[in-house]
Hints:
By secondary structure, the chain is α/β, with parallel strands linked by helices. The chain is 38% helix and 24% strand. It has a single domain, classed as Vaccinia Virus protein VP39 (Rossmann fold), CATH 3.40.50.150. The protein is built from 10 helices and 7 strands. The protein has a 7-stranded mixed beta sheet with strand order 3-2-1-4-5-7-6, with helices on both faces. Helix 8 crosses helix 10. 37% of the residues are buried. The model has no long low-confidence stretch (mean pLDDT 93). It holds the Pfam family Methyltransf_25. One of its GO terms (molecular function) is trans-aconitate 2-methyltransferase activity.
Amino acid sequence: MMGATYKWDAKDYAKNSTAQFDWANELIDKLTLCGEEHVLDVGCGDGKVSAALSRRLSAGSVLGIDSSEQMVALAGDNFPQNEYGNLSFAQADARALVFDGRFDVVFSNATLHWICGHEPVLAGVARGLTTGGRFLLQMGGQGNVVDLIAVLDEMVARAPWGEYFADFSFPYGFYGPEEYTGWLAQGGLVAERLELIPKDMVHKNAAALVGWVRTTWLPYTQRVPEARRESFVEELIESYLAAHPPDSEGRTHVRMVRLEVEGHKAA
Length: 267
């Protein structure tokens, strides 16, 4: 994750990020790796996606980066170099990548929506790629989680929560192909595909939905004093499920939209 100003509970996140991991594996399949590439994984989180990439590279390597010190530490513990010789991790900001022509592929899943304004990110992607190198990025896109955000908007506009959000501004960069077309061209990157993809995020029960909100909606939850945070999450989930009830098997659903961006570095 790239939310450098937030305090991540890396182990709790690892337990509540199944959907992100499943979607990452779908995205990795689209890379059609030959096994010799050097790959940069931007926003490696707890490391399991970087590890999945490394298993497909018999003669290549993966560097997973994240702005969270806690995430990078957990990733290193989970996937030590004595067991994953072609995999390493480092703390870095996606807005200030300093790699020069080091990577054949830049990959990112469920990360870049933590950043508002992606021009510096894409400049760093271009800088880090070899000429003709490829990138595949997926993130929350235009129209993402609108139902949950509608509940949050209502909550933070009234008592008792409004006092904690007096100077609040929307924290996510949910963009569409229109913005990205210009940003890619500015960065010297060639777009091959820009696509908004609807997704259904399914949690096995309400408790799993609580875990996802608790571990990933930090721009909201961490504005609330810790003593009241659990109550805030409980009210959010109750209100959301009142409008969007679980299905017949007790599973909860959240409408998502992913922006998927694929292309290469111009010659």
